[in-house]
Design brief:
By secondary structure, the protein is of the alpha/beta class. The protein has one domain: 3-Layer(aba) Sandwich (Rossmann fold). About 45% of the residues lie in helices and about 15% in strands.
C-alpha cells in the first residue's frame, strides 16, 4: 500500500480503531508521523489508545451503523484542522448462525457497518483526495471474501463486496495520485468474535459442516 508522505495536518482516519487490526494500524501510522483519527463506538477505549499514542491521536467516537454519524465524520475531522489523506475502513462485525434463524435487524446492522459505511466514507473522502492528487484508501476485507461462509453468510458476502468494490476503486483512481488497496487477513486473535457476542468455541460449534 503506497502512502502519501505525512505533511502538516495530514491525517489518517482509522475506523474500528479501538482494538485488533485497527488499533495496530493506528499505532503504525502515528509512529510514521501522521495525525491519526481514531473512530469507534467505545469512548473509553479510544481515549485510552489516544493517551498511549500521544498528541498525534484524535479520538472521534462514532457509531458507523448510523448514517447521520457517518455523514458528520468529515466535518468533524476538518474541524480539527486536519486533512484526511488516508482512510482505513476497518470497522466491522459478524453475526453467527443460519439465515433462517437470524435476527433481521442484526443482519441489516451488519450491512450498514461492513458495507454501507465503506461506500459512504469512500464517497465522502475521495473527492478531496483526488482534488489534492494525494491519498490512500485501505479497505479491510477478509479471506472470507473468497468463498461461501455458511453460518456467517452476511459477513462473507459483505467482505466479498468490499474486495470487489476496492478492485473497482483502484481502476477508477489510476493516474489520480490516490490508491485503493484491499487487505484480506486470515484468522487473527483480535477478540473479534467476543466483541460480536460469541466465543471461538461457539463459532466452531455453530458453523454447519459442508
Amino acid at each position: 500500500m503506497a502512502l502519501p508522505p505525512p505533511g502538516n495536518g495530514s491525517a489518517a482516519i482509522v475506523t474500528g480503531a479501538s482494538s485488533g487490526i485497527g488499533e495496530q494500524l493506528a499505532g503504525i501510522l502515528s509512529r510514521r508521523g501522521y495525525e491519526v483519527v481514531l473512530v469507534a463506538r467505545s469512548v473509553g477505549r479510544l481515549e485510552e489508545l489516544a493517551a498511549q499514542l500521544g498528541s498525534r491521536a484524535h479520538p472521534l467516537p462514532a457509531d458507523l451503523a448510523d448514517p447521520s454519524e457517518r455523514a458528520a465524520l468529515l466535518d468533524r475531522v476538518t474541524a480539527l484542522d486536519l486533512t484526511p489523506d488516508i482512510l482505513i475502513n476497518n470497522a466491522g462485525f459478524s453475526t453467527l448462525g443460519l439465515v433462517a434463524e437470524s435476527v433481521p435487524e442484526e443482519e441489516i446492522k451488519l450491512v450498514e457497518v461492513d458495507v454501507a459505511a465503506v461506500v459512504d466514507l469512500c464517497s465522502r473522502m475521495l473527492p478531496g483526495m483526488v482534488e489534492r492528487q494525494r491519498g490512500a484508501v485501505l479497505n479491510v476485507a477478509s479471506v472470507a471474501a473468497f468463498g461461501p461462509l455458511p453460518g456467517q453468510a452476511a459477513y462473507g458476502a459483505a467482505k466479498a463486496f468490499v474486495l470487489s468494490y476496492t478492485h473497482s476503486l483502484r481502476g477508477e483512481l489510476r493516474g489520480t495520485g490516490v490508491t485503493a488497496t484491499a487487505l484480506c487477513p486470515g484468522p487473527v486473535d483480535t477478540g473479534f468474535g467476543e466483541a460480536a457476542g460469541f466465543s471461538k468455541e461457539e463459532a466452531e460449534a455453530a458453523l454447519p459442516r459442508v
